[in-house]
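If your schedule permits, I should be very grateful for your opinion on a structural question. What I wish to show you is a protein chain and, alongside it, a tokenised description of its three-dimensional fold. Would you kindly read the sequence against the tokens and tell me how you understand this chain to fold? Here, with my thanks, is the record as I have it:

===
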Amino acid sequence: MELILKQDVANLGFKDDIVTVKNGYGRNYLIPRGEAVLATTSAKKVLAETLKQRAFKEKKIVDEANKIAEAINHYQKALTIEPKSPFVLEKLARAYKTKKEYQKAHIFYNKILEIMPENPLVYYNIACLYSLQNQKNEAFNWLKKSISKGFDDWDQIKNDKDLKNIKNTPYFRELIESK
């Protein structure tokens, strides 16, 4: 009996593998437990399309990661020429944030802060980093700092996905209600 595994099965195969098993094992164990389905012609076509789409998505992710790595490399080189360029520092911070390397992003935002201590957007971006790391108190403190420095894009604050970890806190609701 030919089956398509719906999950990894020890000593048999991995999810989406097409395997051959004895009829009783397939019919009485794997299929009823939801671990496999019959490998019919149509199921194989669906699997082939699913794997094709998955490969496309994975390639897209790899390509994007390569672009980010390349951008980081270029911006690092630019920093050797212009070490205090807020533009380059910000691009590096964003690239590391995209890679979810938040500590490195913090380093570059803090360098911008040294150059532009009154820029409310820097404070806001640091708040976002802390929120992404689920450090709610720090995120909220930096958000308050950004507002006190003049950040007033309330639509951005309300809708920014980077702030999702603090949006359900009483502090955040109180802040939004006050505006």
